[in-house]
Structure formats: C-alpha cells, structure tokens
Amino acid sequence: MKIIGAQVFEARGTFVNRDLYMDGGMLTDRDCGGEVINAEGCYAIPGLTDIHFHGAVGHDFSDGDADGLAAIAEYELSRGVTQICPAGMTLLPEDLEKMCAVAAEHRKAEKPGASLCGINLEGPFLSLAKKGAQNGDWLQKPNMELLRKLEEVSSGLVKLVSVAPEVEGAMDFIREASGEVQVSIAHTTADYDTAMAAFAAGASHVTHLFNAMPAFTHRAPGVVGAAFDTPDCRVELICDGIHIHPSVVRSVFKLFGADRVVLVSDTMRAAGMADGDYSLGGQPVIKKGKYATLADGTLAGSVTDLMDCMRTAVSFGIPLADAVRAAAVNPARAIGIYSRCGSLESGKWANVVLLNKDLSIRNVIFKGEVIA
C-alpha cells in the first residue's frame, strides 16, 4: 500500500509532504506496489497510544470481562487509538488479579481492535485524602508482593503503577518497583520535597497533572514544581476541556515542553454512550453531556477519547505537531513501545490515521489494513 499527497508527521515535530509506503503490516522506505490512497489535503499521523483510560461503550477494564475488553479495544481503534494501556482502579486484590489475567488472555489471543500494549495500575497505593473517584475502602499501603503477583498474572503487561509517595512504605516501594515498571506519582498530598524525594528514588511519571494533588502555588510548588525540576519526568494531561483550563494546558506545554507532556483521555465506561447512570471502580457515576461525576460532584474520569483530546489541545492553541507528539510519540516512549509504534518510520507497525483539515478522521489504517 502507498499513501500519497499527505502532510506526514515527522518524529522531530514537523509535517512533510512525502509518500508513505507499507509492506504487509509494517512501514517501509520503498514502494512495494498495491493499493494507492490519495490523501491530498490530509494529515497523516501515527496511530495514537492512550496510556490512561478506564473504559468505553458501556464497559470498564476493571470489570475483568473478556468481551468488554474486546469491545473497548475495537472502539478505541475506531477512534484512531491503535495502542492501548488501560488503567485499573483501586480494587480488591482478587479483582485486580482477574483484571490482569483477562488482559493477558486478550493479548495472547491477538483479538481484533487496538493492540493491548500494557496495563496501568492507577490504584490501590494512593492517598485517602486525594482519592478522587477511587474507592477509599480498598486502598492499601504500597506492596511489592501484590505488584509482582499482578506482573506475573498479566504475563508482564504491567507498565505503570501509581503511588502516593507520602504514604507509609512508599519510598522503599518506589526504589524497588522502579527497576521493574514505570512509577507514577498520583492521588497524593505530597509537597515539593516529598515529590522530589520520590523522583530521586525512581519515580519518573505523574498521573493526570494538577488533578488529585496539591495546587501549584508560588510558595508551595508541590508535585507540579517537582516534576518540572526533574528533567526525565513525563506528565499526563487530561485535555477534555473539563479537567484542565485552556490557559493551564497552554502553560504546561510551555513549562514542560512538548517532549514531556503525555495527553491522556481518562475515559470511563460512559464514553460513546448516552447520558445516564454508570459506574467506575464500584461507585455510581452520572454522565451528563461532557461530564462524568460521582453523586457529590467529584469528577469521575472523562467521556471523550484521546483523538478528541488531541483536537481539544489544538483548539486551545497547541500546535498540531506538538499535540500529535503528546498523543502518539510520548505515550509510546513512556511505556517502552516506541521501537514498534508512535512514529511513521520505516520498520514500525503500519498504524496510520489520515485526518482531514478539520482534524476529523478520514481513515484509520491498522497494521497495513484500512479498517475505518
């Protein structure tokens, strides 16, 4: 297959008018014949990678349901998200094990839909004071035994684990866990010094920056300031137009640079569904328009998708190339799959999304096949 006429995203952060060649399911640097797609007037970008979302179309990853996970993967692929690393909630250990086992079987079976490239353990090692939409009754102290059990049950799919560094035992956990997975600061009351100690111990990621953590102020910069002062730290940003003000989105890209920002959707099961009553981590959630909230008004994830978050970032004034980098390149780097995807370089999976000038999806190409 060959795509001609498109403005092709380059990993260095520009767009270039060039042809894209595919041989089977891989990108190549030579014309192998076959179908020709005229994409004049379109952008060609890598398939996106969402490393923090919980579910969609009525299903949640935490359900530990094989059919539900398959439906989520197919929905995400239709939205131009070709790699997924779904996030679990704070659950009981047996439910976390079930969730991880279902993910391992899904990966082994090579089911249709977006490629399952990892698992993000958002709970249960979090702060009760900043639990947000997590179930406080199921929180526990950081526990290497549980983490290793989940790594084993998932056949090594665990890529990210969240921890509040101020809780008892967190620093020792970070030192040990960071040699096996990416450790992310999340749902925390940590001040600047505590966060800096966590980064020194091996943490290298921040879960949904600004949300469920102390505010960034001029005398108490907190986790946000500590992340900025740690050059190898990446920060997630929920750019759904609800969680973060447009000015803050612009400020984060200026402060951290486009290479360190990871756009995430944080979607829950109500994404792609009508307004109504749903659940997240065993707690009731109300979806109304663009909002998903608990009964007390606490935000409970989003109801969008990563492609729409990327569009929203552009509508806030983020250059398209920077937004693509934050939704495709950086998340793939964050979970260690950039050698296979995340850019349109020869030798990588032929996962390409063609966007019209208004950034609506024209085609999704997955491993060399046009699927939408």
Runs in which pLDDT lies below 50 for 5 or more consecutive residues are none
Quantity of strands, as a count: 25
Number of helices: 9
Widest sheet, order of strands: 12-14-15-16-17-18-19
Mean pLDDT across residues: 96
Range of helix content = 25-40%
Number of domains: 2
In whole angstroms, the N-to-C terminal distance is: 15 Å
- The CATH class of the largest domain is Alpha Beta
Q: Which CATH architecture of the largest domain? A: Alpha-Beta Barrel
Radius of gyration: 20 Å
CATH fold-level name of the largest domain: TIM Barrel
Output the structural class. alpha/beta
Strand content: 15-25%
Largest sheet: 7 strands, parallel
CATH homology superfamily of the largest domain: Metal-dependent hydrolases
**In one word, what is the shape?**
globular
Summarize the model shown.
Helix content is 27%, strand content 24%.
Fold and architecture overview:
By secondary structure, the chain is of the alpha/beta class. It folds into 2 domains: 1-46 and 342-371, Urease, subunit C, domain 1, CATH 2.30.40; 48-341, Alpha-Beta Barrel (TIM Barrel), CATH 3.20.20. 27% of the residues lie in helices and 24% in strands. It contains 9 helices and 25 strands. It has helices at 66-78, 93-109, 144-153, 170-177, 192-201, 222-228, 246-256, 306-315, 320-334, and strands spanning 2-4, 7-10, 14-17, 20-23, 26-28, 36-38, 43-46, 48-50, 55-56, 59-60, 81-84, 87-88, 115-116, 119-121, 158-163, 182-185, 205-206, 234-238, 261-264, 276-280, 283-288, 291-293, 352-355, 361-366, 369-370. The strands form 6 sheets. Strands 12-14-15-16-17-18-19 form a 7-stranded parallel β-sheet. Helix 5 crosses helix 6 (222-228) and helix 8 packs antiparallel against helix 9. The protein is globular. The model has no long low-confidence stretch (mean pLDDT 96).
